[in-house]
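Q: What does the predicted 3D structure of Rhodanese domain-containing protein look like?
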Amino acid sequence: MASVQEVDIATLARARESGAPVLDVREAQEFSQAHVPGAQWIPLGELAARVAEVPADTTVYVICASGNRSKRGAEILEESGRRAASVAGGTTGWIRAGHPAESS
């Protein structure tokens, strides 16, 4: 299995400013507490069955709490022919870096 691209929080912030999609693969309770504004939410356990819902024409930035589940999420997307990057540091790192977060 090929290793997935991993990016840092600053890279995510720049990509997001350019309109890049963000996919959050955490569980419902985690997502509702805080997430990157505008992030699409598909729990990791459902991602393989819901890959068609993820944009296919651009790199998708996959985020979780700290960066472990997002690596698996990015692998699932890559295996389906999509381009993906895992965000190291995850939502925790995003918030610690002072970026905005939404709750739902």
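A (community wiki): The structure tokens above were generated from the sequence. Helices lie at 9-17, 28-33, 44-50, 68-79, 90-96. The domain at 5-96 is CATH 3.40.250.10 (Oxidized Rhodanese; domain 1).
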